[in-house]
Amino acid sequence: MIRRLAVYCGACDGRDSRYQKAAHYLGLNMAKHQIELVYGGGQYGLMGAVAQGVLDGHGVVHGVITKQLAGRGVTMKTVTDLHLVDDMDTRKETMMKLADGMLALPGGLGTLEEVSQAASWMTLGDNEKPVAFYNLNDFYAPLKGLLGEMNKAGFLEQRYLNSLCFSADFKEILHFMNSYQAPLRRRYKDEK
Ligand code: AMP
């Protein structure tokens, strides 16, 4: 069962205000389902919106932020619990450890880095937790297309493609996560 969900998303607002609203609504929905939020601890952009949504729904928010970013005033001060870590790698690892599943909302390179790590570690057998893309406005369609190309070109096995969820429906994402079975790790030629 998903009790804690890591949400990766933009530290910027985005041009389309629907993304902010959707992030806040996701937070409210998480609180309603008693799912705690694990996220990057920021107060700005979609990050701030999703955390505020959880807090508005009287839910629990775990922020994980680097000391450096905290020193720059990025932290959302009202989170339930804040983990201050030394660097971005520790931040990503801590978020994955705390959560039962990982969900990417629209965002930029930081979001892409986080969700790529979670997804690629699935192929290594180092991440047994589900990874999903909140595909608002078909935001992640180009990435889904690229993953399809990787598959066609023989760089990404079908089972890993099948193990990622792209959806704009929270209930569908929860169902995917709650019934998830991690795929076998990749086997290399001649591997015993
Ligand atoms: P971005 O998508 O580039 O806006 O980065 C935001 C996402 O990556 C969040 O999920 C954060 O956990 C993480 N992150 C990476 N860099 C930053 C940053 N400079 N400020 C806030 N969060 C960041």
Description:
The protein is globular, with a radius of gyration of 16 Å. The protein has helices at residues 17-32, 45-56, 67-71, 88-98, 109-124, 141-152, 158-162, 170-178; strands spanning 4-8, 36-39, 61-66, 81-85, 101-104, 131-134, 164-167. Strands 4-3-2-1-5-6-7 form a seven-stranded parallel β-sheet, sandwiched between helices. The longest helix has 16 residues, at 17-32. Helices cover 45% and strands 17% of the residues. The chain is α/β, with parallel strands linked by helices and 192 residues long. It has one domain: Rossmann fold. The site of adenosine monophosphate has 16 residues, from helix 5.
Summarize it.
The chain is 45% helix and 17% strand.
Distance between the termini: 33 Å
Order of helices and strands: EHEHEHEHEHEHHEH
Unreliably modeled segments? none
- Which structural class should the secondary elements be placed in? alpha/beta
Q: Helical segment tally?
A: 8
Largest β sheet strand count, sense and barrel closure: 7 strands, parallel
Domain count: the total is: 1
Query: Roughly what percent helix?
Result: 40-55%
The hetero compounds bound to this protein are: adenosine monophosphate
The CATH architecture term is: 3-Layer(aba) Sandwich
CATH class: Alpha Beta
Residues in β-strands, percent: 15-25%
Strand order of the largest sheet: 4-3-2-1-5-6-7
What's the count of strands? 7
Write the CATH fold name: Rossmann fold
- Estimate the mean pLDDT confidence: 97
The rough form would be described as globular
Radius of gyration of CA atoms, rounded to a whole number: 16 Å
